[in-house]
Amino acid sequence: LQLVESGGASVQPGGSLKLSCAASGSPSDYYSIGWFRHAPGKEREGIACISGRNQNTYYADSVKGRFIISRDNAKNTGYLQMSTLKPDDTAVYYCAVEVSGGFDLDEHEYDYWGQGTQVTVSS
Predict the structure, then answer these.
(1) Which of 41, 40, 44 is closest to 62 using CA atoms?
(2) Is 91 exposed, middle or buried (CB count within 10 Å of its CB: 0-12, 13-18, 19+)?
(3) Distance in angstroms (rounded) separating the CA atoms of residues 12 and 15
(4) Alpha-helical runs (H) found in 14-91
(5) Among 113, 112, 98, 122, which residue's Cα sits nearest to residue 37?
(6) Where does the chain have alpha helices with state H?
(7) Using CA atoms, how far apart are residues 101 and 78, in angstroms rounded to an integer?
(8) Tens-of-pLDDT digits for all 123 residues of the chain?
(9) Is residue 35 a contact partner of residue 17, using CB atoms and an 8 Å limit?
């Protein structure tokens, strides 16, 4: 399974971005998708996940109310809509897939990872 993120960019505080995560190599509707981010000097942080067919979602407190995770199983693509961006959101953003169908933000449970896409929030 291969994952490719896109959509990262530099934006001003208060702006919005939508990240995409395209999966290839026999993805399954059953897999959970998670979004993580890694900022310089900080540990990697799990910020949102979405389950397979039921598409239940869960968010870290740091992004709750500002970010929305979604998926289009027909397109084998996951999304992260980010709004009201803050400088603290600056990081490399990664999508990942958990093939067991679990639903959590524990990075150790995820089996496949994309290469990451840079998001910079600065005035």
Answers:
(1) 44
(2) buried
(3) 6
(4) none
(5) 113
(6) none
(7) 15
(8) 999 999 999 999 999 999 999 999 877 788 999 999 999 999 999 999 999 878 999 999 999 999 999 999 999 999 999 999 999 999 999 999 999 878 889 999 999 999 999 999 999
(9) no
